[in-house]
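fold-stage: in
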Amino acid sequence: MINSQFYFMIDTFNKINQEIIAAGKVLIITHQGPDGDALGSALSLLMYLKALNKQAMILATGELAEYYLFLPHSGEVVSDPKIIKDNWDLIIFVDACNISYTGVEDKYLIGKRVVNIDHHQTNNYYGDIQAINSLASSTCEIVYQFFIANNILIDRRIATCLLTGILTDTGGFTNSATTLASMTIASELIKKGAKIHQTFNYIVKNKSINGLKLWGVVLSRLKVNEKYNLAYTYIKEDDYRQFNVSEEETDGLINFLNATAGVLAVMLVKINSTGTRISMRTTRNDVDVSHLASLFGGGGHKKAAGFTIPWVVQEQGGELFVLDEKIGYDNIR
């Protein structure tokens, strides 16, 4: 069982494989602070490229969460965007709705062949070849279909990477991204040797006592914008130092907030010294958070999206301010 759009993408998958075979040096790029889907799709392609004896690397700017180090070759991921300046024959973007979301400058793509593989509905279809399917649960689901279309061997290591992406973006088969196709593909990956319980434990059961205490503080700040019926809370940079934890300890918090009943959407604001990152979720079919994210250069899906703003937000008396103006949904709309 695969997504019905697979049959319309076979020609595209074959063209991508032809590009890979013809290339000598291949760079795989994914979004900043990569999650399980970004890493799973990138690493599975890296292993295929290595099997073809290609010179290949993965670029993912930002911090890599330690609990993803169980994935094969994860220690080889490079975070320095300067490597894009090298003479790459082919650049493959995975799980990145736009180039700016990856932290690299598009001017270095001039004259290079670019492939764009993604499942976000806000993808702007950059590159020479696009394999975009917004109905897929994850980019890993699309990469799985790419392997199937080209009769590429999926061994236990590749299966583990692909399953990680599917588990991440479906929330362990609990959110709206879960489909019959995603569950069927997951079962095929388990048949190929991926261990679902072990993988799920790595990416979910990874919080320390201090990390959970931080969650408690962030939850205590939860408020509702009555005008727009939006629940929101925030994390300050100092919070991580106070509890002596890394930022990755808050992974999964926005999805937990999405269990809030009676609101249209939820928002998590991460305040850093250089800017502010905002993640949004909704369970409503009549709310599209990706529309708001796209207005600020971000992206995502109708029910899960995010963006980064260059403004430094300050907290005072439990309220958030930027440029001396109080913000909530009203001022970032």
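fold-stage: in (second)
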Amino acid sequence: MRGESLMFVEGPGGEVGSLLFPPDRMLSLTSCTGDVVYEEGRDYASEPASGALRRLEGSRIPLTTREELSRLTAAEDDAFHRRQVAATYGHAAGLWTGPVPSISAGQLARTHDRLQRSKPLTISMTGDSISEGYNASGFIGVAPHQPAYGTLVAAGLEHMYGSPVAFHNVAVAGWTADDGRADAARVAGGKPDLVIVAYGMNDACYADAAAFGANIAAIVNEIRGSSPEAEFVLVSPMLPSPACDFVVMDRFPAYRDALASLSGQGVVLADMTTLWLKLLERKSAHDLSGNGLNHPNDFGHRLYAQTILALLAR
């Protein structure tokens, strides 16, 4: 595991952070910016049996008070990022019991064929602030300058296959699937081979699953009208933190199910919703968040990228 994020928040259990897997060896614990290296025995103690990291008295690891947490929530700068730490450690194989991305043979046949033959691939992405890149360290211009998930996907495909990938990110902060539907003709104008469609976080303020699904289906159909060979990855969103009280939380699994019903030949689901539910069995929502509200941090953006790449890589 490389760079798994944790955040220590004042309160019951706040001195203890939970790793996703029990470590058999700690390799490093650093600030998320990478400029501070924390020392085991001085700053923290590792509890391998439980996978807990305990913050020690006098530790240099930030302990965020509830007042600070409230003030930092929804920050678009690096304030939340700088309160988190990154753990790199070894662990036993076979511990993951959560969802593993998979698709049926031939479901993205044209995309896979182009990649296998190292042919050029054009990817367009339509979505909201998560897809635009919010709270990835590269997006906000701070160390370690990690790109957002869309750029990671494009770079990953180029690295694995040698295909030249043209990536067009037309996501806009605050947009919903209604906006994506209105913008579908512009996306189609780019003649994409693959389209990543990633909405839902803002839709959950007002739209039921039927309306959301209808908008996503309309986006797919509009783009297919002028680019019939285009294939699609539909992304169901991460879960927001409990502080995001202006959304209806029950809509997220319903949105996932609506997207799953649209899957078929040339259309696949990247299910971040179920993944997030599994992560939250071990992790705090603050461990995974870039703003304490509704954006992923660097670790979360990598999870988005890995999930999508698992669908695209043979």
